[in-house]
Amino acid sequence: MPDAPEQPDQPARPERDAASRHLPVLLQRCIDLLAPALAEPGSVLVDATLGMGGHTEGVLAALPHVRVVGIDRDPQALRLASARLAPFGDRFTPVHAVYDEIPEVVERLGLPGVQGVLMDLGVSSLQLDEAERGFAYAQDAPLDMRMDPTRGRTAAEVLNTYDEADLVRVLREYGEERFAGRIARRIVQAREKAPLERTSELVDLVRAGIPAAARQTGGNPAKRTFQALRIEVNDELAVLARAIPAAVESLVVGGRIVVEAYQSLEDRLVKRAFAAGAEISAPPGLPVVPDTHAPYLRLLTRGAEEADAAELARNPRSQSVRLRAAERLRPTPEHLRPGRGDAGSTGGPGARRPDRTRSPRTPRTPNGPRRTA
User: Fold this and answer.
1) How far apart are CA 240 and CA 243, in angstroms?
2) pTM of the full structure
3) pLDDT tens across 87-136, in order?
4) Helix (H) or strand (E) holding 45
């Protein structure tokens, strides 16, 4: 049950500190993968999804010569993380931004490039634990779901203004919900009587829209709908499709990027973006591949790594994590740089931001490996 509303004549509840409410997933593995690129004094890591700062704290403690730039769109997360990381002084720089803006942030800070990028994707512990944010289907709250509550449309606005076809699209594409049509129909019927405002209303509609037999397995039947709405409200997949190539462009040669994804749609985008950089981009049939078409990334993980039994016991929220990492071998070939028309490379300074209400296009995977010059 959610906490009772604050009374006007009572002081607000004290905000729990970040360290007591956040345990970073696969922390040591992330440090081990990033450390070779951060070996030189003055190396800079961009924690592109700062959250409550657990990963950044681990890096700053383990690598005392490293500076971290922490990006987050959530002002509350930035405040909590900054308090947690205050003992590290000017080795930590917080930035309020969305993580597809990495090149702009790096440029504003006067950095020619960075040695590492870390992304811990999806909804944060803070957002799940704060009932009033509306991310959790197990607690009644306003239908908000914005990672940055200072801007953008809410989940309630999506539910009350999208036509039925668009609701079906969102639930099917982002939630992989096979009963999307039934759920969307019930949402439209319900809002004709009164606008939807609470998460409990949505949970009831989803439950009613899914056949009883299908509700017996797979956990809470509302989880796919909530995931879909969260992704739509925050434009998560389109941001990620821009953020991966933008992050790679911000890396110096020898720099490394580590990404933790928690659902298949995110992991698929990361896998394709890394594969595109690790494969030869020349047309098939060439006897010798030009250097300009040689791979510019080296994969550091064999497929996606998952949490082992020890990590799961320590941190149950690591259950669905899929970790991938890559190292930058050379500058990105001109024909593959962001903004050159490749569907998987839509980021970079000055690139036009696509319509945030549309689904990101799936990036093409180049041809398989061949001999390089």
Assistant:
1) 5
2) 0.83
3) 999 999 999 999 999 999 999 999 999 999 999 998 877 777 777 888 88
4) strand 44-47
Placement of tokens 């890559």 in the chain: 326
Plot region of 35 (φ>0 → left; ψ -120 to 50 → alpha; else → beta) = alpha
pLDDT at 177: 94
Q: Would you kindly state where each structural domain of the chain is located, as residue ranges? A: 18-125+236-336, 138-143+151-234
Domain covering 138-143+151-234 in this structure, CATH number = 1.10.150.170
Is domain 18-125+236-336 annotated with CATH 3.40.50.150?
Answer: yes
Please count the residues of the chain: 373
Residue 301 in contact with residue 323, Cβ under 8 Å?
Answer: yes
CA of 325: how far to CAs of 260, 297, 307, 346, in Å?
Answer: 9, 10, 15, 20
Q: Cα 317 vs. chain centroid, distance in angstroms?
A: 15
d(CA 249, CA 63): 24
Buried b (16+ CB within 10 A) or exposed e, 42-74: ebbbbbbbbbbbbbbbebbeebeebbbbbbbbb
Within 10 Å of residue 89's Cβ, how many Cβ atoms?
A: 8
Q: How many CA atoms lie within 13 A of 39 on its CB side?
A: 6
d(CA 232, CA 146): 10
Where on the phi/psi map is residue 317: left (φ > 0), alpha (ψ -120 to 50), or beta? alpha
Question: What distance lies between CA 284 and its chain's CA centroid?
Answer: 34
Task: Write out the two tokens for 251.
Answer: 């890396």
Residue bearing tokens 């922390």: 27
The rounded distance, in Å, linking the Cα atoms of 168 and 72 is 30
